[in-house]
Structure formats: structure tokens, C-alpha cells
Write a structure and sequence with these properties.
Helix content: over 70%
Strand content: under 5%
Order of helices and strands: HHHH
Number of helices: 4
Largest sheet: none
Number of domains: 2
Structural class: mainly alpha
Number of strands: 0
Shape: flat
Radius of gyration: 18 Å
Length: about 130
């Protein structure tokens, strides 16, 4: 069997927990302002930190039902971010990614792809939760 030793997985999990905790603490203003320079909205920083903490706990979970539940919550968080980009991102935010098509088509295409990604994440989360609740 080829794979990483258990200690590497625990190390990555603990790293996710620490970085997520630091990001969340910075977003909540618990760290001194000269310690961390923040160039993102605090709500975005808090959401990213919470997602990293969730990933850390998901990787540390030994019970499959618990890790499946946390994975479903993670997928719903990703779907929430993609859904926000689909419906609420300011105009012109998503136009820079495909340079060879017109900007209006590019914006609509990006919103469509983020919307499909959100729908796929919600579908996988529902499938996972359905599997847990059987």
C-alpha cells in the first residue's frame, strides 16, 4: 500500500487548524493590527479561516459519519462562496479570466460556471448527507 504515514496526515490537519484559527482570530480583531496586515474583507477572512478549521477537523475525525458530515458542511460552504460569486459579485469582477472573448460574454460565462459549481457542490453535499442519514 502506497500512502502517507499517519503522522503526515495529522501534521497537515494541525496546520489547517492553526492557520484557520489565526485567520479567524485576525478577522475577529483578536490579533494586534501591526501583527497582521489584512487586505481582504473581514467576513471573507473569517469564512476562509472557518473553512480551514473545518478541513482540519474533518481530516482528524476517525468516525466516518463525522468526517462525512464535516465534508458535507465544507461542500455547502464552497457552494455558498460560488453562489455569492454567481449572484452578488460586483460587475466587472469576473471579466479578466478569459482574455479572447468579449467582456460581457466573459462575465456571463464566469457567472454560469460558478453557478454550475455551486449546484454541483450542493448536490454532492445532499448525496453525502443522504448517505449519512440512512
Amino acid at each position: 500500500m502506497i500512502g502517507y504515514p499517519l503522522e503526515v496526515g495529522k501534521g497537515v490537519s494541525i496546520l489547517c487548524l492553526l492557520v484557520g484559527g489565526l485567520l479567524s482570530a485576525a478577522a475577529l480583531g483578536l490579533l494586534p493590527h501591526d501583527y497582521v496586515v489584512i487586505h481582504a474583507p473581514r467576513s471573507l477572512l473569517l469564512g476562509g479561516g472557518a473553512m480551514l478549521v473545518l478541513i482540519g477537523f474533518m481530516a482528524l475525525a476517525r468516525d466516518h459519519r463525522l468526517s462525512d458530515t464535516l465534508a458535507s458542511l465544507f461542500l455547502l460552504g464552497v457552494a455558498g462562496g460560488a453562489g455569492w460569486l454567481t449572484f452578488y459579485a460586483p460587475e466587472g469582477t469576473l471579466h479578466r479570466y478569459v482574455p479572447f472573448i468579449p467582456q460581457s460574454v466573459n462575465e456571463a460565462l464566469a457567472r454560469l460556471l460558478f453557478g454550475l459549481g455551486a449546484a454541483a457542490c450542493v448536490g454532492m453535499a445532499i448525496w453525502g448527507l443522504r448517505r449519512i442519514l440512512r
